[in-house]
Amino acid sequence: MNRSAPSASASGLLESGREVIKIEAAAVSALESRLNETFAAACGLLLACRGRVVVTGMGKSGHIGRKLAATMASTGTPAFYVHPAEASHGDLGMITPEDVVIALSNSGQTPEVVTIVPLIKRLGVPLIALTGEPDSMLARAAEFIPSLASMQMVRTWIGFRPATPDKLPLIGAWQAITGTWIAAGHEGLGITTSPGTAQLLAALVAGRQPAIDASAFEPARYTSPDPPRAASGSRPTSAQ
């Protein structure tokens, strides 16, 4: 079946093309006022890089990332693209501490990208975020958890319901080992409580005020001189 192209005059097409160029030019020009010290810091990281520039992004951001990596490589800067979903399934091994990672995400919350941020930080690899949302997790990655590279997060699964005398889980910092955080003791209800536990622990680690009082769950309550005890006539819940 033949389909005829929409009719349009030559003058109309030219006018439309020029209008598009004007819009794009205005958008590029507007970038000048948005350059600040973070741009200079990013340039400094790239200039000081002794390894490769690793670019990652999902969807359209991924396509732009591939082009960015290809352009850098063709102009003398060793660079390559890593798919964020593949990175979390083994390809992260291609990244070394000598590299610099550039992560692209318009929302700054792309799950596949956000998932590998802690892994990148644990490697001690500098991270440059290109995002349209300056308050997103990705944009705040460097400041989100300053000690993330040396932090240890412990999540145990023992198959028991709460086994503490007060029948409450352990959620928070473990004072015996600096930089270690614990979420344990509620495995029997984990499928329903783990999302809330994750939000609570993330708030504590980031130094934010959690939505609920977290003091009742602090592991430190069992290192105090007067730890909580089971109520009279009750006993800790054991394996079911």
Précis, in short:
The chain is of the alpha/beta class and 240 residues long.
Mean pLDDT: 77
Give the oligomeric state of the chains in this entry, treating copies of one chain as homo and distinct chains as hetero: single chain
CATH first level of the largest domain: which class?
A: Alpha Beta
Number of domains: 2
Radius of gyration, Cα only, in angstroms?
Answer: 25 Å
CATH architectural arrangement of the largest domain: 3-Layer(aba) Sandwich
**CATH superfamily of the largest domain, please?**
Glucose-6-phosphate isomerase like protein, domain 1
Order of helices and strands: HHEHEHEHEHEEEH
Q: Quick one: biggest sheet?
A: 4 strands, parallel
CATH fold label of the largest domain: Rossmann fold
Q: Quick one: overall form?
A: elongated
pLDDT under 50 segments (min length 5)? 143-151, 157-161, 230-240
**Amount of helix:** 25-40%
Q: What portion of the residues fall into strands of 2 or more residues?
A: 5-15%
Helix tally equals: 7
Walk me through what this model shows.
The termini are far apart. It contains 7 helices and 7 strands, in the order H-H-E-H-E-H-E-H-E-H-E-E-E-H. The strands form 2 sheets. It has a 4-stranded parallel sheet with strand order 2-1-3-4, with helices on both faces. The protein is 35% helix and 12% strand. By secondary structure, it is of the alpha/beta class. It is elongated and about 85 Å long. The chain has 2 domains: 35-144, 3-Layer(aba) Sandwich (Rossmann fold), CATH 3.40.50.10490; 151-222, no CATH class. The longest helix is centred in the first third of the chain and has 21 residues, at 10-30. 22% of the residues are buried.
